[in-house]
Amino acid sequence: MLSRRNFIGAVSKDAEESFKKTVEVDRLIDTLREATDKEEKIEASTDVLKAILKPVVDEVEEISWPLRDPEALNLMEKEINQREQEGQLDEGFLAEVNAQLRQAKKDGDKPGLEAMLQKVLQLYASRLLSKRSYAKKVTNPCFASGAGNEVLKAEQFLETIIKAPEEEWNKLLLDGLTIGKGDISPEELYAVIKKRMERTLIRTEGGSYQQRVLIEYLKGIESRAGEIVRVLQAFISNLRTTITSLSYDVHDVADRV
Question: Which PANTHER family does the record match to this protein (predicted)?
């Protein structure tokens, strides 16, 4: 015969088992909901990327390389600026671009897609880094019009490069650096690039795709500047050697005469 104690114990055990099942079902629902949300975010990011790449995609949904229509890049840049303004270029979007870029590099048979995905990241970085300027230093806060601001030429030069297409970097560096035609020394440029990197690391979330993309863009400018400087230094060195050699030859001929 079932005693009162045994009856209560059985009821309690059933209630406990029922509670455990309820918790398990709730966890399963949460997991499915998170998976669905994640899938929807990935689809949304993919749709945004497709919209950005649309101007450079041909009739068979391929990206010809080199591009046949230079205006396509301008349209792509406008789309990026619009999507960024609407807040659609988030971490999910950057993760999608990076994932597709890794796959394109791995496949190795779609140079157009790889180049355009890299261009998307460059345009994104240029857009974000251009939103904040450090080219003016307030020397007299009494001038509300900005008349009391000092222009920091090295910062201004860096910001000009940041805003420019990557294809124009060589000319800008040649025209702006002292080793070329300009008045900014390589050391000054390296210093402001380093400072901008430090500011970027402070203002972005550690380990985020955004931080990685912005830092890589700045490192790209630094690397290109280094290449230009090395090439010009080698050219100048060779030129001096040639001139010295010609000078010796002239003196030798003069002595013989």
Answer: EXPRESSED PROTEIN
Task: Work out the angle at residue 9's Cα, subtended by the Cα atoms of residues 27 and 7, and round it to the nearest 5 degrees.
Answer: 125
Question: How far is CA 165 from its chain centroid?
Answer: 13
Burial class (CB in 10 A: 0-12, 13-18, 19+), 97: buried
More confident position, 253 or 196: 196
Continuous H helices in the chain: 4-53, 71-85, 91-107, 111-129, 153-163, 169-176, 186-203, 209-256
CA neighbor of 133 nearest in space, from 115, 146, 120: 146
Amino acid identity of 179?
I
Contact 113/124 with Cβ under 8 angstroms?
A: no
What is Dmax (Cα atoms) for the chain? 137
To the nearest 10°, report the CA torsion of 151, 152, 156, 159. Answer: -130
Taking residue 40's Cβ as centre, other Cβ atoms within 10 Å add up to: 10
Nearest by Cα to 45 from 97, 87, 2: 97
Selection from 189, 55, 41 nearest residue 112 by Cα:
55
CA distance 151 to 148: 10
**pTM of the prediction?**
0.79
Please name which of 54, 81, 56 lies closest in space to residue 163, comparing C-alpha atoms: 81
How do residues 134-189 score in pLDDT, each as one tens digit? Answer: 998 876 666 555 555 789 999 999 999 999 999 999 999 999 999 999 999 999 99
